[in-house]
Amino acid sequence: MLWLLDALERDPGRDQLIDMLGRRVRALPLGRVRGVLHGTWLGHPVHPMSIHLPIGSWMSAAVLDLKPGRSRQADVLVALGLAGAAPAALSGLVDWAELRREQQRVGLVHAWANTAAVGLYGASLVMRLSGKGAKGRALGYLGLTAVGVGGLLGGHLAYRQAAGANHAEEVPHVVRDGWHRVGGVDEFPVGEAVRCVVDDVPVLVVRESGGEVHALAERCSHLAGPLSEGTVADGCVRCPWHGSVFRLSDGWNVGGPATAPQPAFDTRVVDGRVEVRLPLHEVPEAPYGSDAFTETSVDGHRPSR
C-alpha cells in the first residue's frame, strides 16, 4: 500500500489537469470566504472538521440498513450526508489548490474517490425514494467503500505528506531559551528580509526605518516556504510560495492559506548587535531531570541573504 501511495505521488500523468483545476479554483471570486474555508479564523484547516457530517451520516445509515424497518431513517441520513458533502468538498478544494505538486497528485485521487461516493449515495437516495430499497442499500454500501478509499488517501495527505499541518510548530521546542546574537545592525538593511540561523532554525529578521527590529520563524507555517524570499510591506511579510501574509510585530497570520501564526521572537540591540530570543511564555519546560532548555545560547552565525 505504501509503495502504491508513493508511486501516486511521483506520477506526473495528471499534472496538466492539476494545473488547470488549480488555476480555476484560485480564480474563484470567493473574497473573504476563501479565508473562512481555509480556516484562518479557526487556527487549523476547516476541511477535516467539515467531513464529519457526511461520513457520520452515511456510516449511521449503513448501520440502520442492517436493521429491518429502519429504511426511512436511513434515507434521511443519506440525504443529510449529501447536503453536508458540498461545503466539505469546497473547503477541501480551496486547500488543495495551495498544496505542493506531490500533495496535489494524491489530493486529486482523494477528490475522485469522494466524488464517486457522492454519486453513489445520490443514486442510492434516488433508488430508496423510488421504492427500490435493496438497490439503494447496495449502492449505499458501495458509496461507503468509496468513502473509505477517500479517507485512506486523506490520511496519507495529512499524516504522511503533512498537508494542513503547522510547519513552524517545532520552533519553540528546538530553539533554546536565552538571547541569541544574529548579527550587527548594519547587516540588516532597512525594510529588507534577512535570513539568519539560530540553533539550526532559520529566522527572518527585518529592521524598520525607525530602528525597530522584528524577527519571525523563517519557514512559513503553511508549507515551509522561505519567507526571506518574500515581500515586506505595511509591517507584514508575504510568503513567495502561496501568498500567506504574516504581521512582523507578532507573527499573526493576517492572510491565508496559512492557518497558524509564525513564531515571533523578542529582539534587542546590544553594542550595535541584534539579539533575539523566544518570548518567555513560549519557552517549553525542560523534561524532568534534563537541562535541555537551561543553557543560554549565543549563536555566532552571520546572516545569509
UniProtKB/TrEMBL annotation:
SUPFAM superfamilies: ISP domain
UniProt entry tagged with the keyword Iron: yes
Signal peptide feature range: none
Keyword vocabulary terms for this entry: 2Fe-2S, Iron, Iron-sulfur, Membrane, Metal-binding, Transmembrane, Transmembrane helix
Pfam families assigned: DUF2231, Rieske
Transmembrane residue ranges: 76-97, 109-127, 139-159
Keyword Metal-binding: yes
InterPro entries per UniProt: DUF2231_TM, Rieske_2Fe-2S, Rieske_2Fe-2S_sf
Recorded superkingdom: Bacteria
Domain Rieske: 179-276
CDD domains from the UniProt entry: Rieske
PANTHER family with a match to the protein in the record: 3-PHENYLPROPIONATE_CINNAMIC ACID DIOXYGENASE FERREDOXIN SUBUNIT (PTHR21496:SF23), FERREDOXIN-RELATED (PTHR21496)
Protein name according to UniProt: Rieske domain-containing protein
